Amino acid sequence: MSRTLAESSGTGAAEADLEACFHCGEPVPHGSALTAEIGGRPRPMCCAGCRAVATMIGASGLDSYYRFRDALPSRPDVPDAAGRFEAWDRDAVLDWHGRDAGDGRLDVTLVLENVHCAACAWLVRRFLTDHAGVADARLDIADGRLRLVFEPHRAPLSRLAAGLAGLGYPPHLDAPGADAERDRNERRRMLRYLAVAGLGMMQVMTYAIANYLGAWQGMDAATEQFFKVVSMLVAVPVALYAGQPFYRSALEALARRRAGMDLPIAAALLIALSASVLITLFGHGEVYFDSVVMFLFFLLLGRFAVLTARQRAGALGTALARALPAQARRRTAEGAESVGIVELRPGDRVLVSAGDIVPADGTVRDGRARLDEALMTGEAAPRPRAVGDAVLAGSVVASGQLEIEIAATGRETALAGIVDLLDPARRRRPGITRLADRMAGVFIGVVLVATAVAAAAWWSVDPGRVVPVMLAMLVAACPCALALGTPTALASAARGLARAGLLTVEPDALEVLPRVTRVVFDKTGTLTRREFTVDEVIASAGRASGEILAIAAALERHSTHPLAAAFRIHDTGLEASGVEVHELGVAGTVDGRNWCIGRADWVGQRLGIEAGGAGAASRIVLADRGGELHAIGVSAGMRRGADALVARLREAGIGVTLASGDHEGPVAEMAGRLGIDDVHARMRPADKLALVESLRARGEIVAVVGDGVNDAPVLAGADVSVAMADGAPLAGTQADLVCVGTSLDAVIEAFAHAPRVRSVIRQNLGWALAYNVSVLPLAALGWVPPWAAAIGMSASSLAVVLNARRLAGAERR
Amino acid sequence: MNIVYVLVPLSLVLLAIAIAAFFWAVRNDQFEDLDTPALDILDDDEDRTVDERRSARSGESGP
Asked: ipTM of this complex > 0.90?
């Protein structure tokens, strides 16, 4: 996901002496000479993946992308798109995923990875619409959904998809269903409410100002009445139309006999509206149409922000689609064919090889392979699988080949089973009552009681003034500042955190964060890095380490072993010939010398040398017959910031728990390195959820940090949840906060700033409450003229908004 | 002040037109993509296809 330019320029002075990759901004490794021509000049590239993407962008004449973008892309994998999407042209796939759009056109929704900013959307749209046969392409940068209208026979979907993958946006077919359509309709409906309320507000406000000035300068009664009637004609339909979300949810709350948050809002809107109508038609006195419509507009603004954030978190079906591959190889009588995932049926045999994702649950019928199930189970090391073993959809084949007989597909898989845990977990999530709700409840109670008392008092003094005074009190108490206090503070804080690399999906989480008493971490992929990296090179015979890594990369490029990926960023384009790939290593010729790289004993045996040496057993060995022998240390190390984060939490007196699906050994080792005492290994998704629930039963407020599919249920069930953006998309859909980039520093930032967010919210609510409560007695005595109420209301709202802005400004780095 | 009785109804008509225009815009997806149109205008050779750009580039000499 995206890192902002501001953030990357601020990271680590240690990296300052390194040149930055023109495409992704990561430092270019020493000795790398990769470039790509952009804008007529060769630009430095950090790896083959970036070069491939940048070259494609440049060759398509779309280099404006580099001028437009305001966020850096993540480093792309080397695109090997050819043939990966061929099944997407099959009729069965197009029928299932597409909708007929007339004129032989088809409407298909794709989900793209790595979409960050407007420039991405521009690049994707221009790239697609430049193809003959593509009628329309709209990419929503919020959730990465691409709506594509095209003619399948002129622009085959497989070709478009391969092109997108080449640009660095691997596409997935979205699960068909009403999700996207429903989201869009909901968004449109909210937009219409918002527009009507906004335009109506401005209109009613002009009439109201005429009346305020009239009261000041003298206006004849007929004109005043005219403005009141016109205000009513605008305000009544506007409030009835645009207030629908509140009336509907209030009615639902009533039907279920539960007092919802919207009930007092709906009541306040309707009471103020109908009282103003009565005054306009039958009485004389102040009307508050402007306040009603303005209040409504601000409420809708908040609702709209929440709606878009929620939709951005993405639909479950979409996340599931992203966990499974684009197509599968099905065994047929003649050999194998590429088919869409939707065509697979239990009993079918599919073939998977290294790098593939297993498309469905099943049993191995042929072959051997190592399967990486880290996202599914949390187990870090790939596990061997042979004939008769069960395999799970979503696992990645690390090495080897398998023929699998399918037992379950789609909704029947274990993967979907984990998804089924999510809903109940969400529902059992405790309703942490928000500060604003509690205060609003108290406040509304106070206002209603005070209004009743004042009305009773005026009844005995001057019955004619009962209604105007009641209204004055209700409107003076118009909780505009109260309503704005929390959302503006949370929005500012979310902006500040986004700069630090933490996206806020559920703004309420920022309010809960400072009260957290325990943080539960996942291990694999959360505290550890997902990918292996080279951490040391022990050279002999005077070769530079850059040279050694370049040779290693040239050989390992041909290997699909998980460790081989560690060398990808050291690839300088050096070529190896006569390459032989074995299970334990790779042999080949580079620059005229015969090299072997792999496990020490294998290399030693093959070359007939003693490759053991000190510490070589735990490292990868690169050797040749001429006596050169180098050792390279590769590990999936700790994620940057993990130790600092744990230390900071302990310092702050927050409990730390490690809960992993991995075996005791590696889990205990990681816990030892970080100094975590509360350790749980071999946790299944349901176990993790149970653990968090038992912690909560002890009265703790629990934050969960995780990344995998197996973490999704516990993320859904925690008080606050943080997902790693480079983890499973499914985890991202369940998290309140998403940590982008490769370090945990942003989470430290979040915990450090959470108390300030809370204090600003308290200040805002305190101020709003103090203002409203102090105006209330004046209104009760009938001393507040409408113009003063209007100025006071605007000023108090402004103060709240400005106070909230401090949160966004202070967190700039 | 009689002009008010003309201008205010006129403003109501304008309000109705504004709301109708906004509804039309929402229905026609004008609010679906608020990000890329701002960039389109900065792009010089908007009407050329990928192939035309490729050939244009290969014809270029130097920067």
From this structure: no
